[in-house]
Fold each of these.
Amino acid sequence: MKKHIFSLLVILLFSIVGIKALFHPGLFSAHDIWHQVARFYHYQQALNDGQFPPRWGGTMAHGFGYPLFLFSYHLPWVLGTPVYKITESVPFTIKSLFVISYVASGFFMYQFGWELFKNRVASLLATILYLWAPYRFVTILVSASVGTAFVFTFLPLLLWGILKTARDNSRFARATVALSLSCIILSHAMTVPFIWPLVLLFALFIIRKNPKSAWSVSWSITLGIALAAFYLLPALYYSRFTQIATGAFAHIYQQNFVNLHQLVYSKWGYGIAQNAKDGAFSYQVGIAQWLAFAAFIGILFSKRMTSLSKTLAWCFTFVLLGSIFAMLEFSRPIWDALTGFITLDYPTGFLLPAVFSGSILAGFAHSSLSSRNWQTLFFIPMVVIVLYTNRNHLRVNEYTNFPTSLYVESEPTTNSYDEYLPKGVNLPQTGAQANFIAHPDVKVFNVKQNTKELSFLADIPQDAQISVRQFAFPGVNLYVDGTPARYDKDSLGRVRFAARAGEHNIEVRFEETPLMVFSKFVSLTALTLIALTFFIKNEKKT
């Protein structure tokens, strides 16, 4: 550990300078910052109401309910909960999450680089490029995408685990693969299709050199998916009941291909555009990453590179080139075919594996040079280029100091396209319906509502079809006078039932479905297997 202290201090310094804009009171303007504040607020409300994990936002969508956390990420909000409990500040917690994810990504990248190169300076160079890539600053300071920020954190740790599993098959490495993969899924599942080619290709290249490790790597990846099953299985199954595959969100990819010159260099900006080619903000891979790629190609056939190094370097080269292709209009026929089976959003999501691969190629290029003098001559200019070309990317557009309540009130679903609304629901139309009961003659008393339950007393003068202000969705159940009651949905998607005259206690509760319960069992089983593995190991030692 001592021999790495200087490198880790340098990484910490670059991290602090890179995100110095966050060390400022209040929040800042960014694409998703309003979403993030409202999501974290609703997540905390759901936890306080006894939902674990949170799934249903009963007070969202103008009080009609919204299944946000069936589909949106969990891990950042779980990690932010202790910070919020201590500080009671949503803005501070949001900024803390970005700081934690950014700094940790640097340490994990260095760890992976060391395992890959066995060269401290090469690992440090790859880490600096990874931390100071333009897309990192876009993710945090322009888009405020906290989920993507944590994918950057756990990706190098996942690849480190795969590499260590293949080399020495240690139990710690296998557990790292499982835990880091589940963390990626729980950070931003929509990003997984973009990094999956990198993960699979890297695993295949590693296994090719050590076929005996195939079972261990495969089992660890399977365990990682199982760990996230409590979220993943319901999200995959219940998405068919939402508008994500049929609304505007399903076609969002069509306007978000970029031109090649935008990936090489594009002006910095903080705007939002309907078409990515309009250049509202930058889609650069990074000047340093491009130079690292060029340098690596120039010394690819160096005799100093081992067979394994060349194999892995080719892996990252393929990923970089494939990611570039996937972001260009030429790849649209492939996207058209894939989106018939799965929902994908922005092609520029491939910037993440492109940035990662370009940064790693810088480490390969450095470690392949024939002498320390050449390595120094490569390292110093690369760092200077990183600092110079990103010097204007370290600031936010504008600092803000709005109350949390304004963020929450302005974000009925926290999704720009309201894509998780039940099918057939129109949010503006239903938002105008303020009554808890959609019937002019019914009087309502003792209304109580939280994230998982709406209850009230209703005085119903005559038998009638009654609609309650909660959307019908799997897991939403109706109780009349404490007894389960059947319901259908009205033309607005609300819970509707046949009510008898009289005074009744009406409850609409969200309760986990059998699939949700089963998915939690799968995750607990996977977690138990990991814990049991270490327990058995310790038993053998004693």
Note: The mean pLDDT is 92.
Amino acid sequence: LDIILVSGDTYIDSSYNGSAVIGKWLLKHGFRVGIIAQPDINSDVDIKRLGVPRLYWAISGGCVDSMVANYTATKKKRKQDDFTSGGENTKRPDRAIIAYTNLIKRYFKNYNIPIVISGIESSLRRITHYDYWSNSIIFDAKADILSYGMGEKSMLALARALKGGREWRGIRGLCYISKDKNENYVELPSYEECVADKFKFIDAFNSFYINCDPITAKGLCQKCGDRYLIQNPPSENFTTEELDEIYSMDFEREVHPYYKKMGEVRALDTIRNSVTTHRGCYGECNFCAIAIHQGRTVISRSEDSIVEEIEEIASAPKFKGYISDVGGPTANMYQVECTKKLKLGACQDRRCLYPQKCPALKINHNKQIELLKRLKKIDKIKKIFIASGIRYDMILDDSKCGQLYLEEIVKDHVSGQMKIAPEHTEDKVLALMGKQGKAPLKEFKDRFYKINEKYGLKQFLTYYLIAAHPGCDEKDMLDLKRFASAELKVNPEQVQIFTPTPSTYSTLMYYTEINPFTRKKMFVEKDNGRKQRQKDIVIPQEKSIKSKVGNKNIGNEKQSNFKQVKKNFNNNFIHLKEQKTGKIQHRKINTEIINKVEEYCD
């Protein structure tokens, strides 16, 4: 083999699996490629299965950062992994990139074969960064080469250079370690400076962030000890034709038989019949890393390419007529981009949608409406769902087609509930998130329900919210609760605690406790108990646990035990409700019962 890919996920042959896409792309261009998924890091049985690659090893932690996949926001070990056969979270090591790199070095130390790390875990950890799980600033660089961002171009260019014996250190989209800095690149504050001075750390991240656009970015270098991380400028933006070529590759949309025999992979239920329409996002929410990883420029596939893929899905013998999703990081950014940005690159002094939409961005949903109407006419299609996120502020801004698009979605592409992500309702917190205030949310809600009334539909909105984001305190969560009750007429059920992940402004705020835009001190909740309390203000823990007890989606072999757990839990729950003033103290609920509820339901 020329290249061996190593992945932290079970191998799903799908365009939603980065290792599958890179593998197929290299294969398409004449390279012999193999893949080892979730190798055992305690033996050589898996890692030696395919021998030694001729050109390089390529390691990915998987579709999700391994630490996010393995731990909750309050650092509790997750029991379930949707990207692992059988679903039990036992196959993906912590810091998978480092673990797999060490595994290869342990058993192939006599071979001088480069190790390339890639995927979102390494892409977002390439410079000095804050690591939430170790609560420290770290610099990981144990591999030879790092491919960052969407890696098709850099990985292919590297393979061609190594095959031809040519110099590869100038390839865009790659990072590497050097004893010397590149005099033509921007030098970031060193690792040591970032550790010693939080303002230097902010300076480093600001320079890193504005140098991620392929058109305007300069190369970067950062010293760590006696060596330098060298980051070449990003790979050039894809064209529509290039994206069409990538997504036209032949994917099985199935788990590889070697891994399928180990159990079902839950993620496949979501992605098997889903279609990507575009890459990139100019929303630039401060808690999200998509702008860093996929880019701030939206590149869309052609209508014909999307139609052909859905026709192929519909032709499968077991296809039941439903497409799970047609979208991208933000569904309604398809075919909507600033012509100025496409020529000159992303602006360094302003964002596209915050604090208000930039006048240069002309939003028109007509292309998306036309696409959806065309897709509905495909033979054997019963319904197409839009499960990707939707920016409702963009819909409101589109005076020509926004209302028509919303009617199209509500009427034909919603499965009873439409999921939107306001993330919060208080303007102070929303500003720190890089999102517009709550006024657009109220207007969108009213429009949504008027359309439902117009067509005689009984659908509702589901709101995704974040607790304990930097700058958010318990009063903000109480205000959120009141607003949701009074204005949205709901008791929110989808609330997650903010998780600091590398390469986001929100994580920068979390670590430094400084607003990086004003450079003023700010409140950050860091106590896990109080973080949970913020969430419990909106969703009381006893309600959350009780809803788990009511979950009927449990294997038959566990039903009898589960019924007893449910009975015991309800008895305790009722007893507590009768105590004193009727207030429920969730800490007093029998610990054994809670543990069993987690075991059977989590």
Note: Confidence is low (pLDDT under 50) at residues 551-560, 574-589.
Amino acid sequence: MISMPMIKSVASSEVVEAIQKIEDRADKCYEPLALLDLHPSVAVWALMVRGIGMIEAEIEQRGDNSPEFTATLINISRFTPIAMNWAAKHGNVSAPAVPRKWTVDLAITATQALDIATRYAHFVTCFPMWHKDRYLADLVSPELVRFTAPGKTRNRQVSAYLKGLRPKTGRFQMHRNPKPTTMPEINKALFQIAFDGARRTGPLSFEYADPKVLWSELLPEYKARASGIARRSDDLLLGNYTLGEFNQIYGAFLSICAAHEYLCFAWGKSYVYPFESAVMVRSGDNWVAILSELSGVAPEKCLRIVSELTFNLGRSVDLHVHPFVPLEDGSGRTLAVAPQFPLHSRPDETILRVVSILRPAFFDQTSNGKESESLSELRKRLPDRNLLGPILMPNPTPDVDMLTADEGSSTVILAELKWMRKSLRSVEIIEKDAAVLNGVAQLQEIRAFLADHPDHLTGAWRLPRRIQDYDHVYWLVVARDHWPWMDVTDGIALVEFEAFAMALGAADDLHSAVEQLLTYDWLPVEGRDFRVQYDGVTVNGVGQESEVFYSL
């Protein structure tokens, strides 16, 4: 036993061995599941259906535009793949692959598996971080370990911020955008035509002819949504297709998903929710054909994108990222889609995550333009600020990503812009932390060079006077999508991209803007905006406790 939490590298061998036994036992929690008696394809389909049922229950209770709904979608998209991977690896391949019928027994089986997967997901998050010395562990008993993330109050605030929690009051209060609800009359009419043409095929199923006119009518809206939230250029090359072409295909995909989700909803209101039909199941060739026809993108590019968005049973971890799930039913390869996940995904994040996995070297090349794209966005959002950059510096000094000055308040900002892909697995956080913090070293090098060459930034299109002549000089690392907490180090501060843009857009003079930014009032406050408690989960007779954040 240990009396206080500690990282793995300083724990005794006895403690490390005891914690490893807990992990090994937890890893076998799938063994008694009735799910494994099913053919893997039936089991995977059942898990997707049950996941949709859980999402629909959340919508019924709290609507589909709340922080709780977003959290539900994220959680289900993460723990459902855990059970799906168990089914793929350990399922009964000799059992019948069809028919896929939603019965009480199947619902109970899927619910049991997802319950275990939900609890096991905590183990998957915490134990890898313990092995990397990023979590403290306290061996409470031979069957229970408690994990704690090290750090101070600020670390917890940053963790809450990255989980989507924001201040409930003050000038940085979060305002949730209303969900688009307006449906043009022509869409209503086309939905009604599709609904009127649907027919019951069982107590919990229905079918309808492909509503191509409806899809085409929805297409402009969903293409606009896919393109509108993309934060990278349409010309960005991702392989043999561009981000713009991907958005065209994904917009078509979302149109199909939106039509199906609504028709299922309408059927449920008029009759009974059609659980057997809730998951869209089509052959891979059919998916490619309809997406190519609807989007206008060549079939070979559609095939490439569908293949890259296809869930890898055994490795994939998120249904937002890999929405096409392969099923083998004896008649060839089919791809199943739970429409709720792609409809609530960020297409640009989805494909960039995929490219980072499949073509890491290519992804690294696409990352080279992130700083300039971040700067371009800042210029659009802050038209009254003269944002300069990138400013080339003599080798080996790093370039300045962004520079801006305000003569009225005698203030200048020199910034390094960092834009990290959001993590899929907890252990990815370590590498991303290091990449963001590299900006501190870059600014230190830039500052040292400017101390020796004080006139380097003066002249046309730069600063009207030497940097040493300004009353207020701020050195900032501005991080986007991922960032760790860092106390002000050697006069260098780390701030978040959205907060930076908001602060500079709200204050009249640059000095006041940065001073407001560095109060960190844009971080949520524990006890006011969120709370943290140790939640315990048990699988296969062993348990763990870890910190869980809740919105207040």
Note: DSSP finds 18 helices and 13 strands in the chain.
Amino acid sequence: MPLLSVEDLAISFGPSGVAAPVVDGVSFSVEPGEVLALVGESGSGKTLTGKSLMRLLPRAAKITRGRANFEYGGKKIDLLALSDRQMRRVRGSKVSMIFQEPMSALSPLHTVGSQVAEVLRTHGGAPEDENSVYDAVLSIFGEVGFPSPERAWSAYPFELSGGLRQRAVIAMAMVARPALIIADEPTTALDVTTQAMVLDLLNRLQRSHRMSVIMITHDLGVVANMADKVVVLRKGRVVESGPASEVLGAPGHGYTKALIEAAPKIPHNMTCHEVPGTDAILRVSALSKTYPGRRRTFKSDDPPVKAVADFNMVLERGKTVAVVGESGSGKSTVAKLVLRAERPDPGAVMQFCGGDGDTQDIAALKGNDLTKFRRAAQMVFQDPYAALSPRMSIQDILTEPMKIHDVGSRSERRDRAAYLMGRVGLSGDHLARFPFAFSGGQRQRIAIARALALQPELLVCDEPTSALDVSVQKEVLELLAELREEMGLSYLFISHDLAVVAKLADRVMVMRRGRVVEEGAADSVFNDPRHPYTQALIAASPEPDMEHQLDLRAVAAGAGEPNSWPEPFGYRGDAAPGLVEVAPGHKVRAMA
């Protein structure tokens, strides 16, 4: 007997009978203790479907038909027909939700402990005395893997890493012991190693408490490692459903096949080889960045933070160097330093050789020389939603760099903006539109077009695909590859995912805690990783098939907590090459 049975669900925006449904005829069931994955691209209706079960839809959205029968107190109730007061008794206590972005789901003004305790008091039938509430919250903190539950109680969200914030959101969903959890893209913005730890945590909690889980995701690699059943949505309709092994092993619909094909994969036998050259567009040596520690009133000041230490790199003209690592590894700081968005520590040398043959030391540039360099080196930012001003039209966004650098007349700028739109696969007729009229993938294309407005020679791409669906991600990577060949661009590509850079990078540098722990030609790093952290990154990259399922427990153990890895080999005197155990029974060769 299913715990939840959704029948013919339809959701529309706007006046009834006028707007077309954005979710149309969705049906599925979830058994007790089962994991069901709702899969699809942005706009497919999967998140709306999940929020409708929690009755958390936007005001403009209306459920026009359907039922959601849920087993409650030995009888079936229709979640869609409950009054607001009745739904409050179910929400949190019987059905709970893990939201996509933990920083948005958590209040920045309250401690994590107080927020989890509030859920327990409101929905979980909390005990009368506060000591029992405190003990219950610390218990769930320990269960979701906080290394110090007492410290987590008094911590604010901004004091936690991305992985620990996600654990806090999971604790909020779990504290009242619900029968069903709806997890909305719980690992989208996380590093692959942190993602493996969160998936392992969800997997263990789900099995130990025999919870049912609805996993909302666009990542079929996550589905392969978590789901018992899969429902594939496209434009609000179910195009395929069934056991995960059947849907992923032998997909019957072309859309499912396209999603599987688009998923980034770690190459198992790369045959490309880096060709050494002498025409370097960028040479970096002794690059470091130290931030002062937080100043405290009644305690000693925190020690300085070494964000980047002794970074060295050579980027050949027309090539791509990928800098890979987890959040906090220093890779984005390297990008800011190279573009002089921040000043490096004294002693850094960053030589940029432009097409005119003139070599400049970026670290020493000032005034007009720095402005000239910034015409030749541009950046594509991580979040296409935050990178474009919502108050500017696309024409203003694309022409603004040309205005700042006094390039061309007004008509010439508009003509170039229209050309750039066409070059990135969009229509020049849409220049008058504003960013909200475009999807995430289209916005990233616009961001790339803006970076190309000044005809740069170097593009620094800071996680340009991390917020995108796998199919859109593939399109953007293919576009970047085409532009590199056509325009002779050089890329410094920042990413946390080795699978993303596999087809684009000529050279890979792996960073950990501010230092490069491994570097080499792409085929060398992928085929024969020498450092245990690189091995963990590769092992943690999920693939969209049942044959390459991750041992989540082993990967999580190998990845460790944020500060548990040893210092890079060659930096600490007691680190020696040899076999290193990154998980029980799993050893890899360390870098000499």
Note: The longest helix spans residues 470-487.
